[in-house]
Amino acid sequence: MNYKTISILFLAILGLTLIQCKNKSISETIIDTIKFHPNDPFINSIVPSQKFDIDSKQDNVIEGINGTVIVCN
């Protein structure tokens, strides 16, 4: 193969790769995740998701609305 053929092949693969990429943030990906399955036996006990912002440079204590406590050291 010559240089021109390799260059065209490389650009085609690069172009296809970039077309397939989606610019979704992590929070959008989490929102799109299916949380409830129609046959889930625990459907009545699942509470709404909660989001917390923490500072990773210090110790954190997170308390959820139903009393769940998470300690991050």
Describe the structure.
The chain has helices at 3-20, 26-32, and strands spanning 60-63, 69-72. It has 73 residues and is of the alpha+beta class. The chain has one domain. A two-stranded antiparallel sheet has the order 1-2. Strand 1 and strand 2 form a beta hairpin. It is elongated and about 65 Å long. The mean pLDDT is 79.
Low-confidence region ranges: none
The secondary-structure class comes to: alpha+beta
Task: Name the helix and strand elements from N-terminus to C-terminus, one letter apiece.
Answer: HHEE
**Proportion of strand residues:** 5-15%
Question: Helix amount, in percent?
Answer: 25-40%
Q: Largest sheet, described in full?
A: 2 strands, antiparallel
In whole angstroms, the N-to-C terminal distance is: 57 Å
Number of strands: 2
Q: Radius of gyration, Cα only, in angstroms?
A: 23 Å
> Structurally, how many domains make up the residues?
1
> What is the overall number of helices?
2
Calculate the mean pLDDT score and round it.
Answer: 79
Q: Based on CA inertia axes, which overall geometry fits?
A: elongated
Major sheet: arrangement of strands: 1-2
